[in-house]
Task: structure prediction
Amino acid sequence: MTLITRKEYLKSLKSMKPNIYKFGELIKDVTKHPATKRTVESHARNFDAAHDPDLSDLYTTASTFTGEKIHRWNSMLQSSDDLISNMKMKRQNYRRTGTCSGGVCVGWNAQNVMWAVTQDMDEEYGTNYQERLKAWILDSQDKGLVVAGALTDAKGNRSLKPSEQEDPDLNLRIKEIRDDGIVIQGAKLMICGVAASHEIFLMPGGIYKESDKDFSLACVVPRDIEGLTIVEATRPSDRRDLEDTAEGEVPNTGITQGLLLFENVFVPNERVFLCGEFKYTMKIIQYFTANYRACIGACVAGQGDVMIGASVLMARANGLSIKTFMNKFVDMSINNQITYGLGVGACAMGFQHPSGSFVADPITAHTNKVMVATLPYETKRLTQEIGGGMVETGCMPSYQDFTNPEYGEVLQKYYKAGGASAESRYKTARLAEWLTIGGGVPGCMHGGGSPDGAKLVVRFSTPFEEYVDYAKELMGIKEDVPEPQKGK
Result:
């Protein structure tokens, strides 16, 4: 098995059928179009790393099925070390791209979660889901596939279950079951890395009961499958990002979010791993969120590392010693290590499912999610504070103006401050802006679910009465101390 190269990866994307739109335009080549080329570059750097002698051990591993060398994002996670290596790779990836590369993250987690759940379903129902999944995983390892993962549905009225919605398509559903496969209809929204991916792993967006069994589906589809239309989401910095001539404005990397619209999409049986078995949606969500919320601590830590670097550069470019801001830099570093350390702790304290899949400790992982939804924003605030008004207000000319042959030299004269050139100071400020309020911002608050949802898991996972017994034992309290009864 030969590891896929950057060149082969880009060629494979070029060969896919165009089905992605932005600003009303069909994107014919995702590797070159300004709306998608940056997220493709972010993912391409993973293939570079797999062939880099200094990084290959982190970005590759041995297949548990064949023993051959494969890209790590196609591998099975079967120990705490595997999950921690997942985290190490993600932190390094953020350092090298500054942003999220969802195609080497979410689908990877999905395949491992479904490896565990398909075994449980096969044992109970006599299905052959795990055999199907194994065949697909072997193919993905052989081809070095980049696989996005899609959980978030449109949802509609949040107070109603999927089956109670006025329009059933508001949650991706099984529209028809055939002998040779299923037909699905609906949408998945805000899905990261789709434009840079070969395939999309579709998972249930919630925990369902029998009334919602039609929404209980898991399958994997090619990104360019017939009947799927993808619309790229937009953000305030898009117009700047789309300027091909503005290479000094933003990094060559970036993130995109896809809106996936499924209209009578046929999925053959060999790609279907959950079809109506509603009671297993609970395990899917439990396992997926535990692993994802542990490992996302590495993502925000990696971007935090870049924010520290950008802030150091900005201070020096402003003519100030980093000693001026050392307390702030230490706070930023502590924020990074809290989310990273909590994630590692969740991985180290996890458990192995009988299938071999390893699952992070839920209460620690969900605690990490709460920190991920909090601490990175403080790091971003400190980045803006250290950078000054040039970063926080975004009050800068375009790069075209900054380098204009008629008046650019005069502009640059007034942007010179410390030891760096005016251009380096300008680019550093743009990077800090991009990391804190622009296209580089990952989904800290709601990526992988809301912090309120994570707090519920922590609430129900905390053994309050067990802790009461510890306290009573220490002081020799024998009597029962009940909860007060509510008055009638």
Observations:
- Residues 285-461 form a domain with the Butyryl-CoA Dehydrogenase, subunit A; domain 3 fold (CATH 1.20.140.10).
- The chain has two domains: 10-282, 285-461.
- The chain has a mean pLDDT of 94.
- The chain has 17 helices and 14 strands.
